[in-house]
Design brief:
alpha+beta; 2 domains; 10 helices; 10 strands; four-stranded mixed beta sheet; 16% strand; four-stranded antiparallel beta sheet
Length: 296
């Protein structure tokens, strides 16, 4: 997964996007394989509905990580191109953002402008290649930094298929927002800034989303750099009620994020990178007792 530095601000928003179904032609072998998968999922659902969701999510992650090859035409729009990519890996697509908004149409209704053959190691790599093609073709339309945001796409695995998020679209178009709480007892801003994913995480938290740290000895404060702050915590009884349920956590710092699903996915991915780096760090040496000598 590729993360870029960009100064984004997620504004309050409301509704989620539209879902599209991909219906590829299947060979007999593919049909048999999919039938076996469906049977496995049905058995899992009887035993444990949650295991069904986990299996489906794992299967969709695997599809996103497989090599991708697709022929795209110059006359295809961006959303048609992404749907063709999803069809190639047999996944349904959901676009994050409110369909029908002018900004959404501005980003997804543009034509590719030239024929493109995508040959990528993963779905995300394919999106990155598509972004590069759009960046080149529309090089004169926007300033470089703004254009980077408009043509940066993320592929996020879901139980239903894949969620396509546009980094720039999060600024302008409404998306479904959710509030999540993260225990950050494992993370130290002072000591972990050089960890893999840490720089991207700090940029994401300080520049792109509404973030509040809960300190044990004081009220909520926004991290420096985040704007459009939430109302004072004292006036948000729902927030106070939910935070009180997290008092048992070992951390004195609780990370509270209100953002679209794609932001939560990025945060969780970056946190996992940091956790993995910590797991791979060699254990500190055990101090050995120093020998003592009796005088005399």
């Amino acid at each position: 997964m590729r993360f870029k530095k960009s100064l984004l601000y997620v504004l309050p928003c409301v509704v989620v996007g539209l879902s599209y179904a991909a219906n590829p032609c299947r060979s007999e072998e593919e049909s048999v394989a999919e039938s076996k998968t469906e049977q496995t999922l049905k058995v899992a659902q009887v035993v444990n509905p949650e295991s069904t969701a986990a299996l489906q999510l794992a299967e969709n992650k695997q599809k996103l990580n497989q090599p991708l090859r697709v022929e795209l035409k110059a006359t295809q729009t961006v959303d048609e191109a992404i749907l063709a990519m999803a069809k190639a890996v047999k996944l349904d697509v959901e676009f994050e953002g409110l369909i029908g908004r002018k900004t959404f149409e501005e980003i997804y209704s543009k034509t590719l402008g030239t024929d493109v053959t995508l040959e990528s190691q993963s779905f995300q790599d394919g999106l990155n290649d598509l972004s590069q093609q759009l960046f080149i073709h529309y090089s004169n339309e926007y300033q470089a930094e703004f254009k980077n945001m408009l043509y940066e796409y993320l592929a996020i695995p879901t139980e239903g298929g894949v969620l396509i998020a546009n980094v720039g679209l999060r600024i302008f178009a409404p998306s479904e927002m959710s509030r999540k709480f993260y225990d950050v007892s494992f993370y130290s801003v002072q000591t972990d800034q050089q960890s893999p994913g840490a720089a991207e995480l700090i940029d994401l938290l300080t520049n792109q989303i509404h973030v509040y740290w809960r300190f044990a000895d004081r009220l909520f404060e926004p991290i420096s750099g985040s704007i459009v702050p939430i109302e004072q915590a004292d006036n948000d009884m729902d927030l106070r009620r939910q935070v009180s349920h997290l008092q048992y956590l070992p951390s004195v710092n609780i990370l509270i994020i209100t953002a679209p699903r794609s932001v939560h996915y990025e945060v969780e991915t970056l946190f996992e990178l940091i956790r993995e780096a910590k797991r791979e760090q060699p254990a500190p040496p055990i101090p050995q007792p120093q020998p003592t000598y009796n005088a005399g």
